[in-house]
Design brief:
The chain is an all-alpha fold and 80 residues long. It has a domain of 53 residues. It contains 2 helices and no strands.
Length: 80
C-alpha cells in the first residue's frame, strides 16, 4: 500500500527580508493600504481562493505592517 502526501509550499525556504522602498509611504497611506489588503483578504476567503493567492496577500499585508511599524518609529523618534 502506497500513500502519497501532497503539500503546498507557501513560503520560500529562506524568507527574504523586507526592505524599505526608495520613497517611503506615509503612515496614513500605509494604513489605507493595510485596510485595502485586509478587505481583499476577506473577499478572497469568501470566494474560496486558493492557498497561493491567500499567501501572496498575507505577504503583502505583513510587508505593509512592517513598513507601518518603521514609519511610526521614524515619525515619533524624530519628535522625541
Amino acid at each position: 500500500m502506497m500513500t502519497t502526501t501532497m503539500s503546498t509550499v507557501l513560503r520560500p525556504a529562506s524568507p527574504s527580508r523586507f526592505r524599505r522602498g526608495r520613497t517611503p509611504l506615509t503612515v496614513e497611506a500605509l494604513l489605507d493600504e493595510i485596510g485595502g489588503l485586509t478587505a481583499e483578504r476577506q473577499r478572497l476567503r469568501e470566494c474560496g481562493a486558493d492557498a497561493g493567492r491567500l499567501e501572496r496577500n498575507r505577504v503583502k499585508l505583513a510587508r505593509a505592517q512592517w513598513q507601518l511599524s518603521h514609519a511610526l518609529i521614524e515619525r515619533y523618534h524624530h519628535a522625541a
